[in-house]
Every structure is written in C-alpha cells, then in structure tokens.
Amino acid sequence: MISNRFFTLALNGIEDGKWDTYLRLFIGCKRVIQEGHREDFMQDPVVIDIETIPGTAQQIKTYKDVKCARCDHNPADHPKQKKDYCAECDEQAALRWHTSQTICITVKPVDMDVTCFCDRDEVKVLEDAYEYLSEIRPSKWIGFNIKDFDLIHLKMRGMVNDIPFINILPVGKYDKRLYDVYDVLVEGKWNKQQSATLEMFAAMLGFKELLYGSGRDVPKWFAEGKMDEIRKHNIGDVLATEQLYLRICDAETRYRSRGRKIDDEEVFVL
C-alpha cells in the first residue's frame, strides 16, 4: 500500500539521519491519506434516517419574510384564489430545512448495531451525529428518499448551526456513495396515491412489524415529551429501510436459491 511505502521510506530516512527526508515523506503521506485515498479509510455502508419537527416562530417568520413576497399564492396579491395555500405552507414546516428542527438521527452500519441520537436540543443531536459519522466515514449512504430530504436537511441545518455535515456527506444526487432506495425502486417519481411509502413496501414484502408508529405523530410526541416514542419510530424506519436495501441487493441470490426445477423441454439452445 502507498501509506506503508511512505512509512518504510520515512524509517529509512531516520536510520540514515535524514530527518528532513522523514518530515517530507510524513507530510506527503498525510496529504495522500487526506486527499487521494479517503476511500481506503472508509468503513461499512450505513443506513440513515432523521426526524424533524416545525421550527421556532422566528425561523418561520424569517422564511416567510423572503418567501411570501415572491409566492404566486400570496393572498395579498391573489385574493380570489379558493385554496388556502398559506395553511398548507404552515403544515409543511417540518418538511423544509428553513422552517424545521432535526430532533432525531438514527444511523446503522449494515448488519451491525444501530446508533440513535435523539434529544430536544437540535444542536446536540447534530453535533453528536456529526462526530459519529465523521469518525466511521461510511463508504455508502443508504436511505429512503434520502436525496431529497434527509441529506439536504443535514447539510443545511448543519450550515445554520455551524456543523460541517457538508464536508462528509455525498456531493449532489449522482454521488456514487449515495444509495436512495426510494429512487432505485420508483425512480424518484411522486406518487399521488402514496403507494410508494416505506410502510407500503414493508407491508407488501413482509416486514411491517419493524416499523413503529407514524411520522405524523412525531410533532405530537415531541410536544408531550415522549422522546422514547420518537426514538423507536426512527429506529424502526432505519431497520425497515435496511431490510428493503438487503432485499434489493439479494434479489438475484434469492431468485437462484429458490431451487426451481427446469424440465428438459423448457431449455432452449440458441
């Protein structure tokens, strides 16, 4: 390996009394590790999921000060519209990084133990998760709708709170370290019937028992101080996502191991 070669040469430099050689080689080795061979130090793929709640009144005000002035559905400019878009906007506060807070992050290296960071303090959750993830350096980031939700939230809530998730998370939607199970299965297409949810996949494939509660209950649980409920829900989503990922990865093996018998007349010679 390159790093071993550097250290061997460096040690030779020490034996010859050439400390400057050792120093140059050590710095060169560090540079290679940091810039050119990060993948050599990455660990197992991880499944990740987050839970968010509506943010503070100040967050929402800051968002609206900018958004409402440019919104095509602003009732001040469009008084005749029938639908209450403002109410819908308020209801979706937890789904936007601008108007939400991240209160639970669960990470699970595939086939290993799960780690959950859950607290009423968003900064503590983000800091603890960042320290953990920057230490294990995942080789692959796996999630359900992770491209359009989880990673964006982590990057931007990290930016707001000066926590550098942006330095360790995949860069863009086409980063090879990113594996969005939702995107793989339904190509990221919005389904108005909601038939492409994690709950639906888990039910149809036989592991719905891994799930706990509903994401719609998270704000209520938070208001009631039931952090254990949020933790169990978040962990359940990660376990179900992992199972879905493994089903995709093992699809060929599962098919070949079914032990189907093929009659002679079913075999075609081309």
Helical percentage: 40-55%
Which structural class do the helices and strands define? Answer: alpha/beta
CATH superfamily of the largest domain: Ribonuclease H-like superfamily/Ribonuclease H
> Rough shape?
globular
Quickly count the helices. 11
Describe this protein's structure.
The chain has 270 residues and is α/β, with parallel strands linked by helices. It folds into two domains: 2-41, no CATH class; 46-54 and 100-253, 2-Layer Sandwich (Nucleotidyltransferase, domain 5), CATH 3.30.420. 49% of the residues lie in helices and 11% in strands. It has eleven helices and five strands, in the order ααβααββαβαβααααα. The protein has helices at residues 2-15, 19-36, 57-70, 85-91, 122-136, 146-160, 181-186, 198-205, 218-223, 227-249, 251-256; strands at 46-54, 100-109, 115-118, 141-143, 178-180. The chain has a five-stranded mixed beta sheet with strand order 3-2-1-4-5, with helices on both faces. α1 packs antiparallel against α2 (19-36). The longest helix is centred in the C-terminal third of the chain and has 23 residues, at 227-249. It is globular and about 65 Å long. The two termini are 46 Å apart.
SSE topology sketch:
Blueprint: H1 2-15, H2 19-36, E1 46-54, H3 57-70, H4 85-91, E2 100-109, E3 115-118, H5 122-136, E4 141-143, H6 146-160, E5 178-180, H7 181-186, H8 198-205, H9 218-223, H10 227-249, H11 251-256
Parallel strand pairs: 1-4, 4-5
Antiparallel strand pairs: 1-2, 2-3
Summarize this structure briefly:
The chain is α/β, with parallel strands linked by helices and 270 residues long. Helix content is 49%, strand content 11%. Strands 3-2-1-4-5 form a 5-stranded mixed β-sheet, with helices on both faces.
